[in-house]
Amino acid sequence: MNTATLSIGGMKCAACAAFIERKLARVDGIAQCRINFALEQATIDHDEGQISLPQIQQAIEAAGFRAAPLQAQPPQVTEDQSLKRKLLLGGIVSLILVVGGMPMMLGVPIPIIPRWLHNPWLQMVITTPVQFWCGHTFYQGAWKNLRHGNTNMDTLVVLGTTAAYLYSLLPTVMPEVLTRQGLAPNVYYEAAGVVITLVLLGKTLEQRARQRTSDAIHKLMGLQPKTARVIRQDTVVELPVETVRVGDVVWVRPGE
Question: What pTM was computed for the model?
Answer without folding.
Answer: 0.72
